[in-house]
Amino acid sequence: MEEFELIAKTFQGLEEVLAQELMDLGANNVQIGRRMVSFTGDKALMYKANFCLRTAVRVLKPILHFKASDADEVYNVIKSIEWEQYLSCDSTFSVDAVVYSDVFRHSKFVAYRVKDAIADYFNEKSGRRPSVRLNNPDLVFHIHIAHEECTLAFDSSGESLHRRGYRVETGAAPINEVLAAGMILLTGWRGECDFIDPMCGSGTLPIEAALIARNIAPGVFRQGFAFEKWKDFDAELFRSIYEDDSMEREFNHKIYGYDVDGRMVACARRNAKSAMMSDVVTIECRDIKDFEQPAERALMVVNPPYGERLVLENLLQVYKSLGERMKHAFQGNEAWIISSSYDCFDQIGLKASARIPLYNGDLNCEFRKYELFQGKYKGFRDEGNTLVKDFAPLKRKSRLTGLDGEERKPRTRPQTDDMAPDADASMRRRRELESYLKTRIAKRFTGEREETAQTNSRRTEERRDGFRKESHGAAPRRDDRKPRDNDKRYGTKDFKRGDSRQAGNAGSREYKRNDRRQGGDAGPREYKRNDRRQGGDAPKSYLKGGKRTFTKRGNKGE
């Protein structure tokens, strides 16, 4: 078959994984770009790419590359295409535009001009035109403009490829299926051991892990693809690809998903049943604090809440509990955690051996690897292991934020030349020197700070004394002050013997014998028989048959 250019779009950070998937399918001329991978292949490869790729969002087929400096030039070029070979007047279409240019500043305006060009072409030819439909059209056009470089392409996928079709219910903050599959593929896991997700939510990570372990194409659950409505669609070719299960394999381990929310556990079980993975995926209701050491070797991949879409009061405590259980109940295994918060990562309390920058939606995240070895790090290193960064995407810079939104750069360690024969000795001497210098500098600055603090305190006291003497005179001490009449130490007011302020029996205050304040029966206060305050039935009635009235000043009147 004839080969043509194709473009697979993905999320930032998954380009290398997508490129490897395409090479495994037999793609040629694979080139990695920003959030996309370009390649060449025939019609069968285009069908396979849509059906088999796990980390692709959509697959585009470019039909025209050109340059344009304004929207009118775009209109003229699009109108010059012979559109009868792609659609008819009875077809429906839609246009999606992506613009990175100082000249074209409104992507929707570009999409309108492309739509007008196609409609005017058919109107001039036959007096009729195809209709525009936003939902499920026959053809979807993509125009991409970078400065003056324009690319018009057909969307062969239709609905985004992350919509596998097995998910029947979701939670409050579900992870994208493409991102979930990409995270698992980044770990290098292909079903060699058990898989554990202690915070599975709606079960996306365990289900994607099951599909990877059995090598089942993610497109088997979809209702259809956009290329099935094209004029040159080959139904027999696509049927042969759809029914080919020769690459599927057995999986002899187990996949576990846990969550503390019973509703999410029920949701994850329904999704696993919809994906026909209930035999290998086990979902249970369990708190991270109750996580126990697995009986077999396992890989852990976790997508905990970040505090963005799903807000928790004890968010940092969740990460602290996760790190504690990883350290004490996951020894000898490997764990990967994704998050967008530097503060949350700090609560884990473990050193990451790898950091891969990823995007979860519009959140800048890091996907960190933790190797939970048994014993001390020295023994782990003596076995030939080391906590180093060993993955290509780690070379890219990543910026995380704290819970306060402040951006922070990840801490890095100075790199050494591994080819040098004395690299280890050189690094050891360098670290010893740095430690010595840090200690000396710390002592020096500590002494200087103490001396400076004492000097500043002395100078401040001198300035205060000078100010008192020059402006107001020296402030007398407490004992030198003139006694005041109301000062208890130097003379007090003559209170009556029984004054309550002298803890007496209120000698100067005379209370009626039956006053309520003396526990009496409200002698001088006379209440009516049916007064409410005396348990009567008359509401707010102090006079027989009347109500309280008030004067202009607010006093009670009769």
What would your notes on this structure say?
Helix 2 (43-52) packs across helix 7, helix 5 (177-187) crosses helix 6 (204-214) and helix 9 packs parallel to helix 10. The protein starts with a strand and ends with a strand. The protein has helices at residues 15-25, 43-52, 71-79, 107-126, 177-187, 204-214, 235-242, 262-274, 315-329, 342-348, 377-382, 423-472; strands at residues 4-9, 28-32, 36-41, 58-67, 92-100, 131-132, 139-146, 149-155, 194-197, 255-259, 281-285, 298-302, 333-339, 354-360, 363-372, 400-401, 407-408, 549-550, 556-557. The model is unreliable at 386-397, 410-423, 487-493, 498-508, 540-546 and 554-558 (pLDDT under 50). By secondary structure, the protein is of the alpha/beta class. The protein is 31% helix and 19% strand. The longest helix is centred in the last third of the chain and has 50 residues, at 423-472. 30% of the residues are buried. The strands form four sheets. It has an eight-stranded mixed sheet with strand order 2-3-1-4-8-7-5-6. A seven-stranded mixed sheet has the order 11-10-9-12-13-15-14, sandwiched between helices. It contains twelve helices and 19 strands.
